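Annex B. Sample input.
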Amino acid sequence: MPRNDDRALENLIRGTEDLIRDIPAPGTPGTVSGPLEARLDEDVRRQEVQTLAGMIEPSTDGSVEITVSKDQMLVHGTFIPPAGDGKPLELDAVRSGLETLGVTFGIDWEAVKGCILTCNEERSQVSDAVIARGKNPVNEIPPCIVISDNLAPKDKPEDPAAARVDFRELSTFTLVKKGDVLGSLTPKQNGVMGITVRGTAVAYQKEATPYPKPGKNTAWQADSVTAACDGRFQFTIAGFWVDEVLDVRGDIDYHVGNIDFPGDVVIQGEVRDGFVVKVGRSLLCLGTIDACQIHCGGDLITRQGIIGKEKAVLKVGGTTEAKFIEGCSLDSAGSIYVRTSVMNSSVHTSDRLDMGDRGIIIGGTIHAQNGVSAAQIGTERGPRTEIHCGIDFKVEQKLIWIRDRNIAMAFKLREIENKMKASPSTRSVLSPLRDRIKAAIHQLNENARALVSNLDRNEKADVSVRETVFPGTYIEICHVSCFITRPKRFVTFHLDKASGKIVEKKWEKQTGVGPGPAGRKASIQT
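Annex B, continued. Sample output.
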């Protein structure tokens, strides 16, 4: 028997010859062909088949992984596609998984079918898809009041330089009129039970929602709360109300803007130049009033004074009280009381101008229907001071307006008549216009005659001077005038109707009566 070594050698030789068979000798030119080429193709093909066989993945069926959230209100599903020759995911498999987890409510079968289709057709995994939702409970909400949207606080623009507006017209106050709707009552909203994906009921809660309560100067009308008066709307978390008194804690300036308020106004600071304050009732200003416009339906009280700079215009429907008045036009329906001085101003009152114990009047024009009381009128070398008493200055203003309008229409009438004479062809057009102007002039004259009878209102008006009235002072009572040519002291001027002259008498202090607004009731409710 051949030995094992010989057999191994024989196998080695045979294997070597098989490897080198059909290989060209070294240095032989040409390409691989013939039996060698076939041998190579067969070996390469065998290796590729073995490699592909090793790369083929194992076959698995499509599946789904389902999870339920802790609150049992959501169900998520991850859909895994089949592999190889695995079976596609079926709807029954998802249904079975949901039943196993006890999910019975809120299943979105359309979403499930869409995920299965994507998983099977595109062979891609769909992760964490919501396939079921519970129903959240709806809490019970008690009736509450909702403030009207138009009553939201007003803000100034962030960039004032960029906005083309007059910032004096911007106000930070929210004003309402009587009857305006401040808030509406929303009805009770009943609670609704919720349910989990496993069909378990979830109880609703009763919300303790805080809401503002209606307060002062508000009224119920059906299911709405309205303003019971004109005023400023005030709002906090706890409640809302309407203030009849507007309290401005500072100056009237660009931070506040112009004021147009239907009730009383209290200004803790000053009224700056160029601003407008319109008040339906009374105005109390603790600081000075500068060159501005004041329109006040009630009383005007300033604890300091008025520095008008020849620009301030004040119209007051009640009485006026100030420490001093300088360079302004003041029209007051009620009496005027000034503690120290009235200088270079135009002052009108339908009652009386009373100055303080040391009060003086220098320059300007005073129209006081019932008279003037002052410590001093004029100065030695000061400007001319005019005092007009006994007449209704409003009637006088109307008569002046009628006079000026009559003059203007008379000139227009003469112009029309001259035109008609120069061009007769214009007569047909201008004649009706001429007749209308004549009728208007006649009507104005009739109005003037009716007003004249109301012009002189108080023949008992007087001008009382407790110390000195200086030369250059002009005094007129019911259109009877008197010009002071020398200083006079402790004197009262009044009209002697019989003689038609202004006469003098010694000034005497009346018992229990003195200058100042004693006995007047405060007209501002705070």
